[in-house]
Design a protein that fits this description.
alpha/beta
Length: 230
């Protein structure tokens, strides 16, 4: 059975050529486009089963922000990254953003199709040696001083960092307020600011993002003594 696909790549000619090849193999291609500011919105609106998203610089900070947005709005869409021979860091960044796999630009169409089928089935679509390197990067996020965890940590005030740590520990608003010596309404406001800065919609997503990026390791233990209501 064919797969409902979208192909998004910096080079429109490559995107259209790949889309044509996949159509000939029985797949339904909803769109083939060059990634612009609205690429993520286009994928979200069309809701394909699998999106093939090209990139020339997989290790560049922020490169996979569209993937994060797609997975947040349409978690059922499997995103396959198309890129050059990557570094483990590039693979790790793709998986950390929520991608289902990584396919090299020089892969044969048969290999691309196998990756598509794996991604649709919920499997990791990446060569074993690349996956091993990615896992190493994900398990040791502190090795990179400019990684996503450090970037997110710099966005938060010390008070918000403490709130995030408490959220990750499973504390509700009442416990956060009691532990920090602030009013529940103030604690609730802090939580909402943390969610907004991290770009997530729930406490669970915030905790997952913090754990995945190593932000919690950098934050350190919370101060359990009650402080002034700020």
């Amino acid at each position: 059975m064919g797969v409902r696909l979208m192909v998004v790549d910096d080079h429109r000619l490559l995107a259209e050529a790949l889309a044509s090849a996949l159509k000939l193999r029985g797949h339904r291609v909803l769109a083939a486009a060059a990634p612009a500011a609205g690429a993520a919105e286009l994928v979200i609106s069309r809701a394909p089963e699998v999106c093939l998203m090209g990139t020339a610089t997989p290790a560049e900070p922020g490169m996979f922000d569209p993937v994060v947005k797609i997975k947040r709005e349409r978690p059922q869409v499997a995103v396959l990254v198309l890129g050059p021979v990557p570094s483990p860091r590039g693979i790790a960044a793709a998986f950390a953003a929520g991608a289902s796999g990584y396919v090299r630009h020089d892969e044969r169409i048969e290999g691309v199709e196998r990756a598509i089928m794996k991604a649709r089935a919920g499997e990791a679509a990446v060569a074993p040696q690349l996956l091993q390197g990615a896992f190493s990067e994900l398990l040791n996020p502190a090795a990179q001083p400019d990684d996503e965890g450090q970037r997110l940590l710099q966005m938060l005030t010390p008070r918000e960092v403490e709130v995030l740590v408490r959220v990750a520990d499973g504390e509700d608003t009442r416990l956060i307020a009691a532990g920090m010596g602030i009013a529940p309404s103030t604690a609730r406001t802090h939580v909402q600011r943390v969610l907004m800065k991290l770009g997530v919609g729930s406490r669970l997503e915030a905790a997952a993002l913090a754990a995945r990026t190593g932000l919690l390791d950098r934050a350190g233990p919370v101060n359990n003594s009650a402080g002034p209501d700020l």
